[in-house]
Specification:
This protein has one helix and no strands. By secondary structure, it is mainly alpha-helical.
Amino acid sequence: MNKLSRMRRSRDSWKGKATTRAEQLREFRKTKVRHQGRIEYLKERIATLEHTLLVKKKTKFPAE
């Protein structure tokens, strides 16, 4: 096997691994952003529901 052939084979192997790794990282970042957005939405929803519950408790059982 001559040097050029070995170099091409080595490069193809490295290139395939790098492409796969890049795709995995890209998908991971997209998923992470999507999950962070969902977490923020749920935190806001929890705060809203807790506030609503607090208001309802105050109106149902006013402080004497």
